[in-house]
Amino acid sequence: MELQKLFIFSYCSICLLLNINGIINGVEATHKIFPEFPSLVATNVKQVYRTGFHFQPPKHWMNDPNGPMYYKGFYHLFYQYNPKGAVWGNIVWAHSVSRDMINWEALEPAIYPSKPFDIHGTWSGSATMLPGEKPVILYTGLDPAKRQVQNVAFPANLSDPYLRVWVKPDYNPIVVPSPDINASFFRDPTTAWWVNGHWHFLVSGKRKHRGMAYLYRSKDFRKWIKAEHPLHSAPNTGNWECPDFYPVLTYGRTGLDTSVMGNNVKHVLKVSLDLTRYDYYTVGIYDPVKDIYVPDNTSADGWNGLRYDYGNFYASRTFFDSRKNRRILWGWSNESDTTAEDIAKGWAGIQIIPRLVWLDRNGRQLMQWPIQELESLRNNKVLLTKQALEYGKNVEIKGITAAQADVEVTFSLPSLDKAEPFDPSWTNAQDLCGQKGSTVKGGVGPFGLLTLASKNLEERTPVFFRVFKAKDNKHVVLFCSDARSSSLNEGPWKPSFAGFVDADLTDKKLSLRSLIDHSVVESFAAWGKTVITSRVYPTLAVMGDAHLYAFNNGSETVTIQQLTAWSMKTPMMNN
After folding, report:
1. Is residue 64 flagged as an active site residue?
2. pTM, whole model, 2 decimals?
């Protein structure tokens, strides 16, 4: 996979990954900054690729979601933001509030460099709710020596539901890197949890090539002591960023407060890998006596592990929504075009639609689904049922705004007999998708949707399935979101994102939901078992010239059992 002229700015706190001339994701980031760009204020914001219903500020650079919480009737989202330009730099904690996580009102930045312990940077962190409904922010600052240190901030006025003003006590920093810790890789504190008479939180980093989740404890949330051992670490994973650690029930969709322990509870540890730029997680057991986390042996603990999202998604953060007893996931989706394009359009970065997260019934992986509040934007419903898709057939879905839409479809597979044989060496889904794209004829599939398509299909972003037959008459489902044909412009990065789906094909059905929003396509396979986000920049399939099709390029006829599509209204977005 070639990345031509691609500049990816990081990500969890600071890194700038400069990829040119055929370098793939697995390249270690540097901290190189282009000093001529961070303070280049946007005077003209181009609208053509701006999203209609995803979270983004009116202009300039945005990256990690920080400290999401619910407080006194409002959802709060803080995020890493450059108020002076469309590339990374001058980072502050921007702040927005919402009643529903769909319509947002922008407030003044909550945290910005102002004290010795954060004079060179206010980077990512999280929020914790102390007893008595008292929120506190944990964040990484850069001190005068440019060490990464951990700080706290408290609301100036607890009676203000907007939490407009935050105070940073002078006893900061609460945690500094000990001699055995690399002070340049020590950041992104988690939400704290209470167990056995102590508060606990994690800070991520690395020791040589081993990713680390350093553990700290405190009785009073002021004096913190480093544990003798990390909560967890993994060899050959490189630097960890933006860790997240939380409990999940072994049944149902109800979320849990971060401090909940007990029967029928497992834990999730998520880390953002600096080397690959993807978010990985494991499901396992937390021992609160030994203060260690042991992943289950049902998935890899590293580069080949489970991901929240197999596409353009990084630096994620969850929170417990006490209003509706659910756990909500936020994540950043960076641009896939060039730095020059970002500067020209005056903005960069969006947040994905917040997702409900819960443990699958099989106990091996998480499930994800867009929050129900998103459905309030649905409009102009279109319904299609029992539509047969023979090989080579495209069916246009008319009557909606195809550039800003929500689509749910269930495909019925009359037979799996024509499924292609699966080679056990095909362990990399993205490589496999690159070999067997949407136009490569198969047996059962490829079938799915052609999103953001031009009238004559010169441009299209196919989101599709392909079913293979493995040993013992089992089947393997490949799920792809292939941006290679998304734009006639050669500048953007256009990968063939993909993941395998642990789908039960007993009923011979596969579901797909895609959220289409001008320059982003978020897709959920098998009711949220595998999720892929793609960023795309069509030149023809824009605004009213975008089309949506269902297609099949497999020799086995596939039936659209039901397809429902809606145009999506535009909410209030940080005006």
Report:
1. yes
2. 0.94
